[in-house]
Amino acid sequence: MKYTLHIEDKVYEVPHKLTIKQFRELSNWDIRLENNWRKVMSIVMNVPYEDTLMIPDKTIELAITFLIDKIYPDTAPVKDGIVDINNVNVGTFVDMEVLISGGVQKNIYGIIEILYGIKATDDLLLYDFYGGITYYLNWRLNIFNSYRKLFGLDDEFSKNDIDLEEKIDPAYNWYSFLMVLANEDFLKIKEVVNEPIIQALNFLAYKKDKTEEENKRLNELQRNSRLN
Fold it and tell me: Alpha-carbon distance 44 to 27, whole Å?
């Protein structure tokens, strides 16, 4: 079913699917804020902003309810060609974290290029990639849930938590992360980035636990020496 909007003698259609260009442009306009609704409509439906000023508030509100499903197509399937989640390496994971920390919408082009290994162009349809991106983000949540101690997340963190970006430091030092894996040898970073991320996280978790145990042992020795 097609939905249309009539403004004087002009007719505008609610698009069946958004392009990634529109999706990125919308990142500048928080749809949760009513003051941005006319701008959102202008971007999604290609309506001149000046024309949206003639639309009654109730009509704008109704239109936004139709547009939300286009902006966030939660029922989109996972398109073939996405990176093999079971073989994500350190380099891919770190590159994705840097992009995600800057905002999925703002960095949609780079995220698509990493996940699908293609050149992202303005005319690509968001629907074709949204399912794959959501799939990756859910996998990412599970990763942080499994290694929450390593990343300094509290026990209340849940794998269903969609606000991970508010819990993990967005300025997490990924360079230090790579240097630890490379044993402080810069020349080994090229080798490190090709290692599976799960193996790398297991190693770091082991190393962190070992360091904590060693510090605990040293503190105990110091305490005993003072008592003696």
Answer: 12
Per residue in 192-203, pLDDT (tens digit) is 999 999 999 999
pLDDT tens string 167-226: 565 556 788 889 999 999 999 999 999 999 999 999 999 988 888 888 888 887 777 777
Label residue 63 exposed, middle or buried (CB < 10 Å: 0-12, 13-18, 19+): buried
Which residue, among 72, 67, 13, has the nearest Cα to 39 in the 3D structure? 67
**What is the token pair recorded at 103?**
């905002």
**140: closest CA among 155, 163, 159, 115?**
159
* pTM metric for this prediction: 0.85
Dig out the tokens for 118 from the structure.
Answer: 């293609």
Q: Half-sphere exposure of 173 toward its Cβ, with a 13 Å CA cutoff?
A: 6
Domain boundary assignment for the chain: 4-71, 85-170, 186-227
Q: How far is CA 168 from the centre of its chain?
A: 13
Backbone angles phi, psi at 4, to 5 degrees: -125, 160
From residue 176, alpha-carbon distances to 20, 99, 186, 189, 214 in Å are: 33, 17, 11, 11, 21
Half-sphere exposure of 220 (CA within 13 A, CB side): 6
